Amino acid sequence: MHNIFNINKAESTITNTDTGYCTRLGQYELALLITLIKHHGVVQNTDSLLEVVWKNKVVTSNSLAKAISTLRTILHDKSPYKIIINKPQAGYYLNSSSLKLFSISPCF
């Protein structure tokens, strides 16, 4: 069974289409999710995710781990993880076969 979500970039929200539950995403969680979606199925290494998501801010891999944990909670991705997958010593990727995006609204 797939989780189906709508993402509204302009409002920084994600809505579960089954339950109607809407959650506001922080700017970094939204940027991380969009990055993983754009590169779904392809492992993104930790350093590149930190650079793309947090841009010129000095952060540690703990910031990434916390954002991943938040997204997993919102996406109901429980261990063993099926949506956001960690490849040890490599990075993270989005398993799009376990997640359906009904729509992603553009940011205006």
Task: Describe this protein's structure.
- The protein is α+β, with helices and mostly antiparallel strands.
- The chain has one domain: Winged helix-like DNA-binding domain superfamily/Winged helix DNA-binding domain (Arc Repressor Mutant, subunit A, Orthogonal Bundle).
- Helix content is 32%, strand content 26%.
- A four-stranded mixed beta sheet has the order 3-2-1-6, with no helix packed on it. A two-stranded antiparallel ribbon has the order 4-5.
- Helix 1 (27-38) crosses helix 2 (46-54) and helix 1 (27-38) packs across helix 3.
- The relative contact order is 0.25.
Topology:
Elements: E1 3-8, E2 13-16, E3 22-24, H1 27-38, H2 46-54, H3 61-74, E4 84-87, E5 91-94, E6 99-105
Parallel strand pairs: 1-6
Antiparallel strand pairs: 1-2, 2-3, 4-5
CATH fold naming: Arc Repressor Mutant, subunit A
- Report low-confidence residues grouped into runs of 5 or more: none
The total strand number stands at: 6
The overall pLDDT, averaged over residues, is: 89
Given the structure, what is the number of helices?
3
* Distance between the amino and carboxyl termini: 33 Å
Secondary structure category: alpha+beta
- CATH class division: Mainly Alpha
Order of helices and strands: EEEHHHEEE
Please tell me the total number of domains.
Answer: 1
CATH superfamily: Winged helix-like DNA-binding domain superfamily/Winged helix DNA-binding domain
Which key features would you list for this structure?
single chain; about 110 residues; alpha+beta; Arc Repressor Mutant, subunit A; four-stranded mixed β-sheet; two-stranded antiparallel ribbon; 6 strands
